[in-house]
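tokens incoming
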């Protein structure tokens, strides 16, 4: 009798062990498959939107940028003013608001010439380069009515005339130089060397600065607004600006390891934008995309911290890790803005 009970106990214990080891093995297999899936996803190159090429005018201007660049920014105001978003959605009161408020003598010059950047600039290309620990050297090329409004007579009154590389140039102060390379084009530079380097270029920027060129290629939309930030310092500042309104996103330390950034916006049938954040490794990009996706989902689920309109916008944001990059894309059709306009 006792032998029978002992034998049954051994059978029961053996069955339990077999069940336990089987469950453990199943969990191990599932975990291993999940790990392989994550590894495959991280290393799988996803399909991306083909970037628009630079126009001939953009290519010509960029090719003349002297030295290397920490940041390149392009604003095509003429094309933006032709877009449906500008003509049908944007209120007239906002169309004449100045795009920026420059400091010092440049601000006085624009006021004296009655220049409004929003209406008098057709296209603006800017390049920034760090000089020393804090100083930023810059180059800006603007075309459109602004070039005619800032007359040579006004420039002679505001600064000192000098000839550089065969061009009439004007020194307003030690950090502001102006000239023209065409009747409808005006050049502003932060130093004489930057101005001379653009007026008489040496070599090709596209061959000299491969990193900046690579980041420009990551800017999908080229006609309205785009910028490429090959510099880690500029990238960090831009990221702080992009995430400053979201404490959940801004607090994620992994996002701050971004090395390069590109962003572009198109305003044709609403607002379509894409930003690419480049990291040092694919694993860092995957963690950043996962954290960012989670933070945005939490923001969208919180009714106390976001309005229905904001939650609707958040639902239209797509985040994807693609090798060493995090790609963020959104498309906001005109109907969103016209519906809100009608409700008001």
């Amino acid at each position: 009798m006792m032998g029978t009970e002992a034998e049954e106990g051994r059978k029961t214990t053996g069955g339990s062990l077999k069940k336990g080891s089987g469950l453990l093995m199943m969990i191990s297999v599932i975990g291993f498959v999940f790990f392989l899936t994550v590894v495959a996803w991280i290393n799988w190159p996803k399909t991306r939107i083909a970037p628009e090429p630079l126009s001939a005018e953009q290519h010509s201007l960029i090719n003349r940028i002297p030295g290397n660049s920490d940041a390149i920014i392009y604003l095509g105001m003429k094309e933006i003013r032709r877009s449906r978003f500008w003509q049908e959605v944007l209120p007239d009161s906002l169309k004449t608001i100045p795009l920026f408020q420059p400091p010092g003598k440049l601000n006085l010059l624009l006021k004296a010439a009655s220049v409004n950047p929003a209406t008098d600039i057709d296209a603006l290309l800017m390049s920034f380069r760090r000089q020393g620990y804090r100083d930023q050297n810059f180059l800006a090329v603007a075309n459109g009515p602004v070039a005619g409004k800032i007359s040579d007579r006004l420039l002679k009154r505001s600064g000192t005339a000098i000839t550089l590389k065969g061009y009439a140039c004007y020194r307003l102060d030690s950090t502001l130089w102006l000239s023209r390379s065409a009747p409808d084009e005006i050049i502003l530079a932060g130093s004489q060397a930057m101005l001379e380097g653009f007026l008489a270029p040496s070599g090709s920027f596209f061959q000299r600065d491969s990193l900046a060129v690579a980041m420009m290629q990551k800017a999908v939309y080229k006609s309205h607004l785009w910028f490429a930030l090959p510099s880690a310092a500029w990238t960090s500042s831009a990221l702080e600006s992009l995430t400053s309104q979201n404490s959940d996103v801004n607090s994620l330390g992994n996002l701050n390891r971004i090395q390069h950034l590109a962003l572009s916006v198109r305003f044709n049938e609403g607002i379509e934008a894409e930003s690419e954040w480049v990291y040092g490794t694919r694993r860092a990009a995957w963690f950043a995309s996962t954290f960012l996706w989670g933070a945005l989902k939490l923001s969208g689920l919180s009714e106390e911290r976001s309005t229905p309109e904001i939650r609707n916008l958040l639902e239209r944001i797509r985040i994807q890790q693609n090798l060493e990059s995090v790609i963020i894309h959104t498309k906001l059709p005109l109907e969103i803005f016209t519906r809100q306009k009608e409700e008001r």
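note: The mean pLDDT is 84.
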